[in-house]
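Before the break, one more example. Copy the sequence into your notebook; we will annotate it together after we see the structure.
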Amino acid sequence: MKDVTQLTEGWSLRHGEELLDARVPGCVHTDLLAAGAIPDPFLARNETDVAWVGRRAWTYVRRLGHDSGHERTDLVFEGLDTAAYLTLAGRPLGTTRNMHRTYRFDVTGRTGELEVRFASAYDEAAAVRAVTGERPNVYPEPSQYIRKMACNFGWDWGPTLVTAGIWRPVRLEHWSTARLAEVRPQVTVAEGTGRVEVRLRVERTERGRDRRLRVTAQTAGVRAEAELTGDETVLSLDVPDPRLWWPRGYGEQPLYDLGLTLSDDSGPLDTWHRRIGFRTIELDRSADEHGTGFTLVVNGVRVFARGVNWIPDDAFPSRIAPERYRTRLTQAADAGVDLVRVWGGGIYEDEAFYDACDELGLMVWQDFLFACAAYPEEQPLRGEIEAEARDNVVRLMPHPSLALWNGNNENLWGFRDWDWEGPLAGDSWGEGYYLGLLPRIVAELDPTRPYTAGSPWSGSWDHHPNDPAHGTHHSWEVWNRQDYAEYRATVPRFVAEFGWQAPPALATLRRALPGEPLAPGSPGMLHHQKAEDGNGKLNRGVARHFPLPEDDFDRWHYLTQLVQARAVAAGVEHWRSHWPVCAGTVVWQLNDCWPVTSWAAIDGDGRPKPLYHELRRVYADRLLTLCPDPGGLVLAAVNQAATPWRPAVTLRRVDADGTTLAEAVVEPAADPRSVARVPVPGHLVPDPRTGREFLVADAGEAPRPGGAGSGEGLRALHFPVPDKDFAYPSPRYDVTLEPVPGPGDRVDVVVSAQTLVRDLLLQPDRLGPAAVCDRGRQTLLPGERARIRVEGCGPVAVDAVEAALFCVDLG
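Here is what the structure looks like once it is written out:
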């Protein structure tokens, strides 16, 4: 039977004349940081002080010895970052040039000092560029010439920290006769029967070349067996009436163990185990009167995808433990998310990521790793890219959460709109990968899943790649140039990227910028703002709605976070209200890889921004929204639940002083997985000329005057004029604290409004770095109460809570 020895201990990193202790998996930066040789690059402006690390060659060493009675010993690296030359006892072992592949070297009978010498990624990229010629890139870095995490070279939310190292596990595998070299389970469901076709390939030793082998497969109580005379075979298992795997919100996520055993007459030789799920996944790209659709269909049910874009959760991915994946993805699920797009400038994530998605019901949209650049299609890159794609399709395909393969991020769009055609002058740029190589690989290895050539992509060159009427669309004009109200100008078929920036939590800023007086334009704040004219866009976004605070950082911080939440909500509410024409929104982005001002809902220290709580509201199964449409104001009842929804919605036209000017009850009828749209009666539409009127829509237990009602109902608001043009009263409210019995450090903050209080927000980290609360912005009418539960703050006084509360205040 094969046995495995993990090689996590005993590694050293050569640093000049020193040998530093090295952690494997890890990288040069984390080892230097642990040794005190560099400052923390996430703090202050240290990133620039450690830039030299990425431009040097580095060597990892370890004594390799093994005593095995097996015929063969393989040294297996799950990830080497990136261009490496390996020697064992001074003799060549092999070379690598791809961060995203697994490498296997035969070291049978060989011992001695193992050296893994990493070239500078810059040097490797320059050598490839000299062969292929120049290609355009959105960023002035050589990411397209090396198969490495592109955002290592910096992005408009990420630091330039170019890593090297043994970033995934390394092991010795000792085996005899044969081993399971590749296993591909293709899982389908038809007419109530689940079928698992297990396609496998074995590798044999010389002595095992003519040996008769036997393989058995078992899942859900069904067993299949086959004899191998060659190196490949297929086993089929038919499972009657399997429980289906569903995205969260649509059903449960049952998982079945699938196990394989390879044997010969002497007994078992090798085993393989994964968890699978039975479901069908299709992508409906049918043409209709609105253009070309892009709708995911799971088990025959059409799904509006409530998505987020995922970037590597740390600029040093080797630090992301399974528990951290679980935490971050659980946060996504708790926010109502049912789809996570793994963006093409990062990595194919660890198994722990996909395991968590399997269990949480999070569909995974997996990009192949190409982003925002023209990629040469010549050697040595082409062979690497094919091997990388095959490696990762085979590795990831057992996961039922994996729903879609996507060829690239924005490169088809870039070719058309970013002035690439002239400089390319006919040179290759990646089209052959996205429209040729990659779809062929997916069709060959993983035919049960759909593939799309890119994001955005209209489906063919017959339409502009980012045409909102066809396929996937990236909506960035709004953030870059317009007010967020302009999200309502179009109804794309599927919004695969859109977003709005905001700074991270105050506690995150204080940790990242120690000792710096915080101001929007302070040196550290500007260093941790990577977007082009990022602060200018933030300020213009605020100024369209509020007087821009000149010298009040706390107010600026609140308003930028508020506008981020409002902007994303405006897009999601509008697009969800137009289901099934629009079939999904994927917010840019869920997470950050370091402390930075960005589009993320959860900042680089793992703290939720107000946007996170807004996602919980707008991604809930049931959403009430007031939508300004060209034909007039519309109330939309969005029902993604499996049961009908017939809410009695109270519409009130209200004056700024809280007086109800007109009132009516409407009852939209939303069938399961549908939207009911009801015109707002004319006498209830606020008159913008007064600058005092707004509309409130309440369904369920909304926070009514006098404090009656739990506040757990649904509320929608419509203010017809920008905040700076509305006659807000000076906000007045009372704050009381109510300790919460039971385990944990919890307190309820109860806010009682005396006036209209717009967008009340508690920033819990101001009460303590570990404090969290259960909700984001809320608007209260006079006499209403809000209850906010805070955990992890320790003992607090009312005045501290009052200092952590913000609301719209134009006084």
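The domain at 623-725 is CATH 2.60.40.10 (Immunoglobulin-like). Residues 553-576 form the longest helix (24 residues). Try to locate both features in your own notes.
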